[in-house]
Amino acid sequence: MKILGLVLVGLVLRFANSQPVRLERYNVDRNHISVSGISSGAAMAVQLHVAFSHTFRGVGTFAGVPYFCAQGSALDAINVCMDAPQSINVGELITEASDAANNGRIDSTNGLLQDRVYMYHGAVDDVVLPAAVEKVQEFYNNYGGNTRVQLITDGGHGMPTDNYGNSCSSSSSPYINNCGVNGAFECLNHIHGNIQAPSATLNGVFQEYQQTEFAPGTDSFESAGFMYVPSRCVDQTRACKLHIALHGCLQGREEVGDVYARNAGYNEVAESNDIIVLYPQLRADTLLGNPNGCWDWWGYEDNAFFPLEYHVRVGPQMAAVKNMLDRVVGTN
Questions:
Q1: What is the pLDDT of residues 34-73, one digit of tens each?
Q2: If you placed Cys at 23, which of 46, 130, 209, 287 could pair as Cys (CB 3.0 to 4.6 Å)?
Q3: Cα–Cα distance for residue pair 34/259, rounded to 1 Å
Q4: Alpha helices (runs of H) in 34-156, residue ranges in sequence order
Q5: pLDDT at residue 225 greater than cutoff 80
Q6: What residue segments make up the domains of the chain, in order of their start?
Q7: Distance of CA 247 to CAs 41, 176, 311, Å?
Q8: pTM
Q9: Where does the Peptidase S9 prolyl oligopeptidase catalytic domain start and stop, copy by copy (predicted)?
Q10: Is the bond into 316 cis (omega within 30 degrees of 0)?
């Protein structure tokens, strides 16, 4: 999530020889659709889960914050949600969710009842302080969620894996840390249950897919996202699960290429459990107020309009990701 005002630096990685494919329909078990994310992606994953609760069976957050935490303010995103999470008023966030549901802006909060929620945080994370996970859990406990919290004592700000990345205590690019823990497995196992051990080999298809058709109301998306289709899901005869994995700030295609999509640990779990994984990709836009390629969890795309829309179904990024999901499921 990095400090929001940090100027984007680093090498811009492109894929000159790649030809993104048109996203297609697959045979998806609609009872097994889930979403997770890290940092700003975690905040977005929670937004998607709450807004489309009748679609998702659960959510995973890695260094995340609760729904509507920033309440449309970049300053609150930094000063409250990231730096002083103990001061987050969860009651206000629950009220916002109830009001949005009553006004038809998100699905009924009844869809959250008993959903499975996985929460991870590194105890030495100095980007999003660990107390934030308590607030995420407090929010979901209001709906009787089946929650699981995992706190790694030497964990920094990064996606925990058991075989790739920086030292576990790191909070630096590419924000993937070797902690001896497979966070993707822990997350997907809690949400879907009975998940088999990660595959040692990837025999499926890793590819880029075209994104622009899904996001007509926003310029914040890259031209292409990534996806992994397990070998048993390619021919579309087997009903497969679907998971959406959202990168964090400074972790998308233009900053680190496909490093996150290939090495966050999801694909190996996906291969052995027939889970199609979508990795939507954002780009940085300084004029938009998003120099680090973060997901919109504080309202930078709302342009000061009221009521705020970034966290409800019609929010530009929310609608775009749902459009991608609907294409894979076959509802658009």
A1: 999 999 999 999 999 999 999 999 999 999 999 999 999 9
A2: 209
A3: 22
A4: 40-51, 74-76, 90-102, 132-141
A5: yes
A6: 28-329
A7: 5, 10, 17
A8: 0.93
A9: 24-166
A10: no
Q: Do residues 235 and 152 touch, judged by C-beta distance below 8 A?
A: no
Per the CB < 8 A criterion, the answer to whether 281 and 247 are in contact is yes
**Burial (CB count <10 Å: 0-12, 13-18, 19+), residue 84:** middle
Local structure of 285: helix, strand or coil: strand
Q: Annotated catalytic sites, by residue?
A: 39, 125, 157
Contact 119/61 with Cβ under 8 angstroms? yes
- One-character DSSP codes across 291-310: TT----SS-TTSTT-SS--T
**Alpha carbon distance 226, 279 (integer Å):** 5
Percent of the chain with pLDDT over 70: 93
**Residue 79, CB half-sphere, CA atoms under 13 Å: how many?**
6
Contacts of 250 (CB under 8 A, 6+ apart): 2, 8, 10, 173, 175, 256, 292, 293
Listing DSSP states for 166-230 in one string gives: EETT---TT-EEE-S--HHHHHHHHHHSSPPPPPSS--SEEEEEE-GGG-TT-S-B-SEEEEEE-
CA angle 174, 299, 57 (to 5 degrees): 70
